Request: fold
Amino acid sequence: MDLLAEVLAVGGVRGTAGARIEASGPWGILWHGITRAAFYAITCGTAWLELAGHPPRQLMPGDVVLLPNGPEHTLRSAPDVAIIPNLCTAAEKARDCGGVLRLGSGEVETHVLGASYDYDPAVSTQVLATLPEVVHIRANRGRDGLDDTVRLLSRELASPQIATDFVLNRLVDILLVQLLRAWRTEKPAETRGTWLGILGDPLIGVALAKIHEDPAKPWTTDLLAAELSTSRSTLTRRFRETTGRTPGDYLTLWRMDLAAVRLRDTDDTVDTIARSVGYTSVYAFSRAFRRARDQAPGQYRTSTRKRLTPAAPVA
Reply:
């Protein structure tokens, strides 16, 4: 069971190539109103990242940085450079369509590749939502494919061909996984309290794998502990330390996440969905779902589909 892959998939995590910044001379831009996770890769030159509550951070060639919650932030050529006014509209357009954002004048000195990641806020077991405000990975680690993928992304942008948009968005998804791998390997202390930190405890990693492999099984803490050849008290303590929840609480959250996705994306009956996540009674499932989502399953299906359906054009 590849836990990270499954949680990313159920969480609806999807990457999109964003603005390509080409800058020269003194330059600075403010990014705000971001509702998605923001990602930058520096392929040439340097930039300074600033956001509230953090000291200015210099980004060097080959560095990648993820802002999981999309906070307001600035990118500049140096910490004391003024923000370029009247660029908000152009910046937002470049970010949304993957266009080039030209900053400053003269020969281009700095190239920054941007991307963004959407995820379903209704899913409780999210990876990105638990990360710190800034995840910064330095260049030239030499032991993973992150550098290679950044170079491949840069080459694809420099020489667009047929299906370039398709390739770029797939590379952006790969970059996220490689960044998370590198961050977990290089800075394990920072992963504590995040979803990735759970994988640092072998016992809990196996416990989660068993839950994810068969969420419909009538798991109890005693049964799960017996499967792991450990005591109920040890399992409960370790589970709380790593996830902040009991095994039963995590099981319920995961079941409700799986059910929510199926209600949103399929036409399966409520009874079918209930049984697929371990409930033999539609009433018991509906009661649990309402506690988790503040809506009955049918209401949730209707409201989420209505929210995701594009508005009809005005005649």
